[in-house]
Design a protein that fits this description.
14 helices, single chain, alpha/beta, Rossmann fold, 315 residues, 45% helix, 2 domains
Length: 315
């Protein structure tokens, strides 16, 4: 389990490598949702998502030998781009396994940042390929979510939330494997225990909810969601432990709710996000969370790496 010092040290470690992203107020959407609303805008982060926070913190703590062997990761897009970018910045080689159906825009971005992309199978097959390549070449794994140093890096986002909205009542966090949720929740609850933190998953890829209900890591049989950034086949041991300790609830939303939230963010907040980044607002507009009158709510818009053709089709 990470502590507040781990997160603060991560903030010091990565400060020169990442942006401190803006906190945007949005009164129109707040009135519609029945709260006072802020948006933590991670689309303005390096590589367009929060992922570089954890990746830079992980790489910074690797030994020279671990770096020399080369890095490997797996991702449908955002972690891939973040790992490629951070590895290039640190002068390290990175191989990233991506599902064959991965968003073409995210694949192109990963290659442009210097990553060696291996496209393979569906998300389940991609994980198998990751383990095969790691064993063959001795690569150092930079896990997309189930790693304490990655979680601590993501926790820096939580520190920034409390700096900008110190009296926040509720934070809504998009949730895939649970790395972002774990870090943000730890950072907030270790400083302000009365703040509620709720994770939001797509109903068609609810691996954290499944793990909590089962009391163990559960691999999903199938994944069906437009939110490719929230669609790993399972959560992790580390993330489930942090969610149990620091998170109030994990709720699910339908893809139709996500599309509606994307539309609202674009038209009302003038913020273009990918489906994953709209999950927090989707939970609000779909009534999946309870609110006290005039509650102060922060939603984490986790990324903005959107394929324009898919965006057009969704809207």
């Amino acid at each position: 389990m990470i502590g507040l010092d781990d997160i603060r040290n991560a903030g010091t470690r990565i400060r020169q490598r990442v942006h401190r992203t803006p906190m945007l107020s949005c009164s129109t959407l707040g009135v519609q949702a029945g709260c006072r609303l802020w948006i933590k805008a991670e689309p303005f982060q390096k590589t367009g998502s929060f992922k570089v926070r954890g990746v830079f913190n992980r790489i910074a703590q690797l030994s020279p030998d671990a770096k020399a062997r080369g890095l490997i990761g797996i991702s449908a897009g955002n972690h891939a781009a973040a790992l490629a970018y951070a590895a290039s910045a640190e002068g390290v080689r990175a191989t990233i396994v991506m599902p064959a159906f991965a968003n073409a825009t995210k694949v192109a971005a990963t290659r442009a940042y210097g990553g060696d992309v291996v496209l393979h199978g569906d998300v389940f097959g991609a994980f198998a390929k990751l383990h095969e390549l790691r064993e063959q070449h001795g690569y150092t794994l930079v896990h997309p979510f189930d790693d304490e140093t990655v979680i601590a890096g993501h926790g820096t986002l939580g520190l920034e939330i409390l700096e900008d909205v110190p009296d926040v009542d509720l934070v809504l966090v998009p949730t895939g494997g649970g790395g972002l949720l774990s870090g943000v929740a730890a950072a907030i609850r270790l400083q302000r225990p009365q703040t509620r933190v709720i994770g939001v998953e797509p109903a068609g890829a609810a691996c954290v909810r499944a793990g909590l209900d089962a009391g163990r890591v559960v691999q999903l049989d199938q994944i069906t969601t437009i939110a490719d950034g929230l669609a790993p086949p399972m959560a992790g041991e580390h993330t489930l432990a942090h969610v149990r300790a620091f998170v109030d609830d994990v709720v699910t939303v339908e893809d139709s709710d996500i599309v509606q939230a994307m539309r609202l963010l674009m038209t009302r907040a003038k913020l273009v996000v990918e489906p994953s980044g709209a999950a927090g607002l989707a939970a609000l507009v779909a009534g999946r969370v309870s609110l006290t009158p005039d509650a102060r709510v922060v939603i984490v818009a986790s990324g903005g790496n959107l394929d324009l053709q898919r965006f057009k089709e969704m809207l």
